[in-house]
Every structure is written in C-alpha cells, then in structure tokens.
C-alpha cells in the first residue's frame, strides 16, 4: 500500500488540475465519501488533500457539509485580472528583450493556429492554444520566478478566463490583440509590448461588460465602491 501522504498528494494534484482546467467549475461540490470511492482510498488522504487545497484558496471548507470549489466575487476577479495584466505585461516587456528565434517561430505558429481555430466551434482547443501562447511568453521572459508567479495566478482565474473565451467577440479580440503583442515582442519594443499585453489581459471597456454578463443578476453590485 502506498503511503497516505503520497496518495494525498496525488489526489490534490488531480483535483488541482481539474479546477484549473475548469472540469471542476466554481461552486462544484467535493464530497469526501464520493472522492474516497473515486480514488479508492480511505477518507484520510482525501481529507488531507482537501485541507491543502483550502489553504491555497482553491476550495472552501464547510462544517459538516461537502467542500466547494471556491467561487470568487466579480469584484475580486477584476482585482486579480488587474494584477494578472501587470505580471503578463512585465513578461512581455522582458520577452521583447530576451526572446529567442526558436521562441519567435513557435509564437508565430501558435498565433496562426489561433487564427484558424477562431473560425470554428472548437472553443476548448482555442483556449488551450491561447494558454500555450501566453505561457511561451512567460518562458521567453527568461525570469523563472516571474514565470512561476504569473502562471500561478493564471491558474487561479483559469476557469473564469475559459468562460470569457466562449464569447465569439472575445476570441476575435484575442486574435488582433495577440498580433500586436507579437509584433512588439519581435520588434524588441519593450514598452509597447508591455502596454499591449496589459491591455489584452486587463478587464476594461467592453471586455469588462462581457465579463460582468457572465455573472448572475445582482452580481454587478459587487463593483460598487
């Protein structure tokens, strides 16, 4: 039998991946008994995995009730997107200085793939290629700590970015915004690359209205003040 801690870590990693991918959506119920049956373990490693997920803010523990995948308020998410925009802007700035020819070629390939996917109903594939595009820019910054922090925050809000991707207008916007980010990075225009990426990620104008529309009626009030 494998040690409890190892099984706990496996369960935690599996649930994390499902939360980050959107397979476990915000508000999804996580019952200890059901999870124990699913992973064919006792409730002890399941409980330990849930405790670690809760400490990272990914789930909400409740007394005598199943845990829930954390649901972030619209106001909190807008704040997180603002920080995300600054981190990704910094990645783009540094990438404009440090990107390699091989990485430029791969960014161009991913961008072309997104253009083709934008005219189809393959939204999940579009989301995945879009994630690869952004993560390659993190890598191209040649700053491992910055890439780790940016990726960690992106994972926290990944389910919500996925929701926005389902809007056709947002996919169209992504293509033109990526084109400008890519142009600036290839040209070595550091300030322009940072500004283009910041504007792409941040929730401003119509993007903010699209985002608010994803929430139930009444959520808009969370933006007040």
TrEMBL record:
Residues 5-72 form the HTH gntR-type domain. Keywords: DNA-binding, Transcription, Transcription regulation. The keyword Transcription regulation applies. It holds the Pfam family FCD. GO terms for molecular function: DNA binding; DNA-binding transcription factor activity. The keyword NADP does not apply. PROSITE patterns: HTH_GNTR. InterPro entries: GntR_C, TF_FadR/GntR_C, Tscrpt_reg_HTH_GntR, WH-like_DNA-bd_sf, WH_DNA-bd_sf. PANTHER family: TRANSCRIPTIONAL REGULATOR, GNTR FAMILY, TRANSCRIPTIONAL REGULATORY PROTEIN. This is Transcriptional regulator. It comes from Bordetella genomosp. 4.
């Amino acid at each position: 039998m494998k040690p409890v801690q190892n099984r706990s870590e496996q369960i935690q990693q599996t649930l994390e991946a499902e939360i980050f991918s959107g397979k476990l959506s915000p508000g999804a119920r996580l019952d200890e008994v059901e999870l124990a049956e699913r992973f064919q373990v006792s409730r002890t490693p399941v409980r330990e995995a849930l405790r670690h997920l809760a400490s990272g803010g990914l789930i909400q523990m409740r007394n005598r009730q199943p845990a829930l995948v954390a649901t972030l308020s619209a106001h909190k998410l807008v704040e997180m997107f603002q920080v995300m925009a600054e981190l990704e802007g910094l990645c783009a700035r540094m990438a404009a200085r440090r990107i390699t020819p091989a990485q430029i070629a791969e960014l161009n390939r991913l961008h072309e793939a997104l253009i083709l996917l934008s005219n189809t109903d393959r939204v999940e594939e579009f989301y995945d290629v879009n994630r690869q595009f952004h993560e390659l820019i993190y890598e191209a910054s040649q700053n491992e700590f910055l890439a780790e922090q940016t990726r960690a925050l992106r994972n926290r809000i990944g389910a919500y970015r996925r929701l926005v991707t389902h809007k056709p207008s947002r996919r169209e916007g992504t293509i033109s915004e990526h084109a400008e980010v890519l142009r600036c990075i290839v040209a070595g225009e550091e300030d322009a690359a940072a500004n283009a990426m910041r504007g792409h990620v941040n929730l401003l104008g119509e993007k903010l209205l699209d985002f608010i529309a994803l929430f139930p009626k009444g959520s808009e009030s969370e933006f007040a003040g």
